[in-house]
Amino acid sequence: MTVRVPAKVNLQLGVGPLRDDGYHDLVNVFHAVSLFDEVTAVPAREPRVTVEAAPDAQVAIQDVPVDGGNLALRAARLLAGRLGVEPDVELRIRKAIPVAGGMAGGSADAAAALLACARLWDADPDAAGLPELAAEIGSDVPFALLGGTAVGLGRGERLTPVETSGTFHWVFATADGGLSTPAVYAECDRLREAGGEAAPWPRASEELMKSLAGGDARALGAALANDLQPAALMLRPSLRRTLDAGRELGALGALVSGSGPTTAFLAGSAGHAADLAAALAQEGVARQVVRAHGPVPGATVV
């Protein structure tokens, strides 16, 4: 049983105050894009996971855990416990989503594993409560199941689909190495404290919602926002050069994707994205430059 699952880019990531449970209240506008991992679930004598790179994908698969720290394997075990079956499954992950790149690749694999294992074990995905299990695994996992465009509240797991018209075209520039999401949040907190800045209570941007509903790429580019970007730039200063290059080459909008270090650039059309990707690749400011479009569906059996 094979499931395809998309990467995400955060069109808006508003980070609120630190909560007592160690998380932040977020306003997270997720957007699923056509950069996919595939997870295949097959019967096995014991739970295990294998990882390979998709053709032409320059992803650091050596950084993907293949033990109990793998989110996909954790998802399979969690679902098996819910269903009362043994988690005897091999998960074969084929990756094209950057590893530790701010595009929720690990969370996407967990969502794919939930759906693949539910089908493998003849369970009704709705009856099995996959969204609830997804939220237990991680904040980004429920959106990887849903796909499209959605506002996530709380830790990002409480989702409301967003009206979106048309297709938006993206260019993503990946970087060598990853960034730790907890480290980026911690740096965000440190920067705010050092600057005497009180953490705001975030709200979904009205301009962003209007641009999505109207399919207005230029307005969307102007409305992109990420409260974690200053922290990511502090931890990885080279990203500033990548962002500047994309803007100078004509991107309608540019931002660090999630906690980084992948950077995202919005184009006005498929042709514009192709030109922008070629120009960025020539600048030598990224490990790999890839194009994608969105929104796309979430985890899907193939």
TrEMBL record:
It is an enzyme of class 2 (transferase). Belongs to the GHMP kinase family. IspE subfamily. The keyword Transferase applies. It comes from Actinomadura logoneensis. Residues 70-148 form the GHMP kinase N-terminal domain. Residues 209-284 form the GHMP kinase C-terminal domain. Keywords: ATP-binding, Isoprene biosynthesis, Kinase, Nucleotide-binding, Transferase. The keyword ATP-binding applies. ATP binds at residues 98-108. The active site is at 8, 140. This is 4-diphosphocytidyl-2-C-methyl-D-erythritol kinase. Catalyzes the phosphorylation of the position 2 hydroxy group of 4-diphosphocytidyl-2C-methyl-D-erythritol. PANTHER family: 4-DIPHOSPHOCYTIDYL-2-C-METHYL-D-ERYTHRITOL KINASE, CHLOROPLASTIC. It comes from the Bacteria. Pathway: Isoprenoid biosynthesis; isopentenyl diphosphate biosynthesis via DXP pathway; isopentenyl diphosphate from 1-deoxy-D-xylulose 5-phosphate: step 3/6.
